[in-house]
Amino acid sequence: MLELLLCSLVTILPDYLFRRYLQGKRFGKEITFYSVWYELRWGITGCLMLTVPILPEAAGRVADVNVDFSAPVKKGDVLFRLDSSKQEAALETAKRRVAEVDASLISARADLVKAEAQIGEAKASYQLAKDELDTKSELQRRNPGIVPQRDIEKLRVALDQRQAGIDAVSAAKESAALRVSTLLPAEKASAEAAMAEAQVDLDKTYIRAGVDGRVEQFLLRKGDVVNQMMRPAGVLIPEGAGRRVLQAGFGQIEAQVMKPGMIAEATCISKPWAIIPLVVTGVQDYIAAGQFRSGEQLIDPQSLRQPGTILAFLEPLYSGGLEGVTPGSSCIVNAYTSNHDLIADPKTGALRGFALHVVDATGLVHALLLRVQALLLPVKTLVLSGH
User: Fold this and answer.
1) Pairing mode, if any, of strands 78-82 and 206-208?
2) Same domain (yes/no): 248, 368
3) pLDDT band at 37; cut points 50, 70, 90
């Protein structure tokens, strides 16, 4: 956003001031879309220059800086590192939690083995009580009165007690088995997820270059505080940005004629006395006029005083066409229609053919005017501007 504002201050604002106060032109009078037919205004940025602000995903204090004020970088290079003591502590806590769950898992497996042994012991005790009960019950049946009835009742109570012990130990085994098979693995998965999250937060403290390019205006130093809103570290310009495509805005009245494949020409401030042949490769199918904005107040269409433009993308017609044009330079662009086939068509009426001849002749005039502007541009900039 800051780069866009600065660019506007040196392109759109000077263009308006020049037209309004030096040439005496007014909006709605001399300054209309018809006056810049097939031509970009001075204030439209000519070269597409992508600038990427260098920002961390979270605010923090800079611990290390690995690049200078201006330096080439490769994708993945660490530009600077934020203080990571909090993230390291969180990662260590998560690792401890994983180790704790692993220990609990080992303990639960031991409890499972112990429960199996206790089940065997309880079953053996149950079998002894049952055998004794069966023996005394058989003696009582053969010789009534030889075994007191109270002893038989005690053995039956003891047998029920042994069965209850088997049930209790079996429940303990089932609980240990559930802990081993379900509960602890789930806890371990959660702990590992927390550890991965902590690792991601730690990795975010290492700010890396997302693309190959060059770092500019990198004023960050150790101890500075950076955040997403108020304190970017610098600007990363991707390699090749602004060197292959021009971005131009045409008046809305050209919406019906601007098509991919049209031939165009441009002259740029950073490369004076040169006409660059171009071809339109894409036209944005909507106009950015600021109709929608997230806020607490509805937008009144009457407040949109500056109409939007037709955004077109242009590439050099020949290889190396943009060599010598500094990325971010302001340019003047003409786009031309070709009506030769329509004029030569026998089905085209005389009146329409005459009108198409006029359009093509107007394009020729604008091509001549573009060359005049290319010749006068250095004079205006270096002599008449007072610099």
Assistant:
1) antiparallel
2) yes
3) very low
Domain range enclosing 98: 85-201
Distance CA(47)–CA(50), nearest Å, equals 9
Instruction: Output the pTM of the full model.
Output: 0.48
CB-CB contact of 201 with 87 (8 Å): yes
Cα end-to-end span (Å), the chain: 29
| H-run or E-run covering 52 | strand 52-54
* The residue to which tokens 């038989």 are assigned: 152
| 128/39 same-domain check | no
Cα–Cα distance between 184 and 205 in angstroms, integer?
32
Residues 235, 97 contacting (CB under 8 angstroms):
no
Which alpha helices (DSSP H) does the chain contain, by range? 2-10, 12-17, 85-142, 149-178, 184-203, 340-344, 350-379
Q: For residue 50, give both structure tokens.
A: 């992508």
pLDDT digits (tens, 9 = 90+) for 279-324: 888 888 777 766 655 555 666 666 666 777 888 888 888 888 788 8
CATH number at residue 62: 2.40.50.100
Are 44 and 12 within one domain? Answer: yes
Residue range 67-96, pLDDT digits in tens: 888 788 888 888 888 888 888 899 999 999
The answer to whether residues 134 and 89 belong to one domain is yes
With beta carbons less than 8 A apart as the criterion, state whether 333 and 248 touch: yes
Range of weakest confidence among 50-54, 150-154, 174-178:
50-54
